[in-house]
Design a protein that fits this description.
Two copies of one chain form a homodimer.
Chain A lengths: L5 E7 L4 E15 L4 E7 L4 E5 L2 E5 L3 H15 L5 E6 L4 H6 L7 E5 L3 H10 L12 E4 L3 H7 L5 E7 L13 H10 E10 L7 H13 L4 E8 L7 E8 L8 H5 L10 H7 L4 H6 L4
Parallel strand pairs in A: 6-7, 6-9, 7-8, 9-10
Antiparallel strand pairs in A: 1-2, 2-3, 3-4, 4-5, 10-12, 11-12
Helix pairs in contact in A: 4-5
């Protein structure tokens, strides 16, 4: 802390709330063809990445999101081999996916190469598995990628996107989910980051509705803490063509790799929605 | 939303982060002998109560905190009859405690009567059980109250206090916990709000240390979401002289009163700490 510290606030218009950080300096900035990416250094949260002014991740708390976007789905699938990440340019989700030794192919398709270049520079720990022979980093349109992917060729699709505005808007509708449905094998799982279970329940319902129109039949929303996103309480939603959400408990317990937030018991705990969320989603 | 809306931010110096709300107007303000209490109206969160500039509660999300400060402890105790709340002047915890039909006495001892007067005016739903014959509202020093309370006369003590600075500082040390230890029956439970499990782990450890010096032998920290507090992720810590934290599962399932966040399954889920918290607390 020094006298030059300033506070950076992000106002969430839809939520009527804001989150801020104490900043020491701006480390980097780039205007890509798609968006403006800024990196700040903070006093307590390590580095921060903002895209078009919206907080994407901090060094300190990104493990919550990245672990919950990957491990619940991978331990729910019986034997995930082919994984596709749409978005996820910071490579944090990719890193978690590659911790699973059974994964044979992990494609990360983010439209903006500059996100990955900035992550390599300022969040190198998230990129430590980018050289893994199973990893494929594409910088391309995720909507087109899913539309062109061979039918029945994917076990898990993780939509690790920004909010449903701007470049990511097309990742939250029936047309995109239909491509995902077609690309997934019968026992495949789609995972989508699904915003705050407190203030954005309507969005979760709408998203499940679009997934349903695309053919998905079973849904599971898992809440988790995520301090750098609106309200500090976030969720991901899993969707399947059929089957349930029992996970490989013994494998999750003996996973053989470290996690900071995820565990079999945390996974089980997240499967229970608070009564007000369950009621809103018609699971009460 | 209108052009006169403004954003009110609260900087958390210890955490290096901030939370803000979109405000329409200030509804009320009083300077009590102890602190300044302000009430704001917000666009999305109902009314807000701030004490000396620190966010205490919002209409929209206080149920998370109040339910988790009360029901886990009350369902862990075999048959709680005598409950004492230290602080808690907004009466939200008292309301939850009185939902338990077995409770015969619920004393709320807050040093500042103005907090309760403001709650009656701006958060009347939290005060709806203040007229209950079992409720006793004292406006007095909680430290003195616990020191003078008859030994072995209390089943559950809930320390529903502000942060350990200013008037509440004396509620986080060995001397106060010794009074609580003496006042509790052998199977009694002390509950203390215990700050953020992400950024204030040191405080949780220190608090458990002080409780331990006072004689408490068993501890359980339960995390829960709480958007209006630093990081949006909060916790309470239960302490016992002996015995464990198995709770009355069947009673919690058939509780016969409504809750928005608490349920037997949420209770069970909260009993599992994320690996990084468990490791920090020596429970890994």
């Amino acid at each position: 802390m020094s006298s030059s510290d300033t506070w950076h606030y992000e106002n969430f218009e839809r939520a009527g709330s804001a989150i801020g950080y104490r900043i020491t300096r701006k480390l980097d900035e780039v205007q890509s063809p798609f968006q403006k990416i800024e990196i700040f250094e903070s006093t307590d949260w390590g580095n921060l990445m903002l895209i078009d002014g919206a907080m994407m991740l901090t060094t300190r708390d990104n493990f919550l999101y990245h672990e919950m976007m990957s491990h619940p789905a991978l331990f729910t699938h019986a034997a995930p081999k082919n994984v596709v990440i749409i978005g996820g340019g910071d490579c944090g989700t990719l890193r978690e996916v590659l911790k699973h030794p059974g994964v044979e192919e992990a494609v990360q398709c983010d439209i903006d190469e500059q996100v990955t270049r900035m992550a390599e520079k300022w969040f190198p720990e998230l990129c430590e598995r980018n050289g893994d022979a199973r990893a494929q980093l594409l910088f391309d349109d995720g909507i087109a990628y899913m539309a062109n992917r061979a039918p029945g060729s994917v076990d898990i699709i993780i939509v690790d996107s920004t909010d449903p505005v701007g470049p990511a808007e097309g990742l939250f509708n029936k047309a995109f989910y239909e491509s995902c449905f077609r690309a997934l094998k019968d026992d495949g799982i789609l995972v989508q980051q699904s915003e705050s279970p407190l203030v954005l329940l309507d969005l979760i319902k709408e998203m499940r509705g679009e997934m349903g129109k695309a053919g998905f039949a079973r849904f599971q929303t898992l809440p988790f803490p995520q301090p750098c996103y609106p309200t500090g309480w976030w969720s991901c939603t899993l969707a399947r063509k059929s089957g349930g959400f029992d996970f490989r408990d013994a494998d999750a317990r003996g996973k053989g790799f470290d996690t900071l937030y995820y565990s079999a018991d945390i996974h089980r705990g997240a499967q229970t929605l608070p009564p007000f969320v369950a009621a809103a989603l018609g699971e009460g």
